[in-house]
Design brief:
The chain has 1 helix and no strands. The chain is mainly alpha-helical and 59 residues long.
Amino acid sequence: MRRIVIALAAAMAVAATPMAAQAAPCKDAKGKFVKCPAAKPAPKKPCKDAKGKFVKCPK
C-alpha cells in the first residue's frame, strides 16, 4: 500500500512540474524579472461559408 501511495505522489509531482515552469515570470539574460511580451494574435484565415466555399470576410 505504501509503495502505491509513494508512486502516486511521485507521479503527481512529475506531472505538476511542467505547469509550474510555464507559469514562471519572464526573465531577461541577466536573470532579472521583466514584463512578459504580449502573445502574438492568431494569423487570419480565409473566410468560408457553411458549405466550405471561400467568401469575402466581414470587417
